[in-house]
Amino acid sequence: MEHDDSKGALKEFTPSSGLAVSIDDPVQNPGLPPHRERLTDVDPKAAKRAERTIYTLFYISVAASIWAVAAYMLFPIEDQEMTSIRQNNLFIGLGIAFALLAIGIGAIHWSKTLMSDKEHVEERHTTRGSEETRAAVVEAFRTADEESGFGRRKMIRNSLFAAVIASVLPGITLFRGLAPHDAENSPVDLLKQTMWKKGEHLTRDPSGTRIKASDVTLGSAFHVIPESLLEMGHDDGMLNEKAKAMVLMVRMPPEQLTERGERKDWSYDGIVAYSKVCTHVGCPVALYEQQTHHLLCPCHQSQFDVSDEAKVVFGPASRPLPQLPITVDAEGYLIAQSDFHEPVGPSFWEIR
């Protein structure tokens, strides 16, 4: 540290540079770099071309959204044709992808070519501003609208509105596929009736081998389907019927079962059978934990207690798994006493 008598200022010697820097001199504001005008700022024709490009992209987005809706109708998935399902997914996905991509590219091109690109400095305020400050904010929004051209460039603004509104339509259309809308094909009625009926043999999935009660050991779990399902072909809706009728059967000590009076004869010597269709969103419940007697749905981790009428003990499922009443025939083979007494599958199907 040394004192400069000629100027009356303190100077500090920095070994790295070997220079004496004045402590009293403030750091100079370097300012902003020179602003470089864009082509669209100086050439009205270029600005017009950019505007046409932007609203063309937005209208392409509208067309892509409309195509996604049309693809849903042109390639229906209700006929269960694998080709139609693949085309449905492909063309709807492409339509939605192009709709959103065109909006994104158009918005970026708009900001890069036509919106104001001048640098601005805004002071930060730690407290609520005064009325003058709030009025200044309103003025800032007005200025931003003017500089972006949002209110002035009607073609861009209107095409953007149309693109955003149209981009929602494919999503709304896809809700149509959640369930039939006609009264004859009510989801509740469709899921309340399965192929199980009185005397229907329980068979292994997928071999179709009948199951004797003596073959079911303590702690074992069997994936079960109705015997008559094997007589159906794929064209007869076999997969749909299997999806409703699939069952998981386990055996545990009878004294560990908690059963209400009306359900005491629904099991046989500790053997119980429950629908494999999760009551949350319909995933197959296929993981059995022998020590806790819990069934686990791998999709969203709902857990059901087999020892207590498959009640929900964890996860988002809202009701127990439906139980299939079972018994044995004269030869000791396991058979169903009836169909399920309630709809299988997700609970939202029961909302009319």
From TrEMBL:
Major subcellular site: membrane
Membrane topology qualifier: Multi-pass membrane protein
Known cofactor(s): [2Fe-2S] cluster
Gene Ontology molecular function, alphabetical: 2 iron, 2 sulfur cluster binding; metal ion binding; monooxygenase activity; oxidoreductase activity, acting on paired donors, with incorporation or reduction of molecular oxygen
SUPFAM superfamilies the UniProt entry points to: ISP domain
Entry's transmembrane regions: 54-75, 90-110, 160-179
Domain Rieske: 244-335
Name by which UniProt lists this protein: Cytochrome bc1 complex Rieske iron-sulfur subunit
Organism: Microbacterium sorbitolivorans
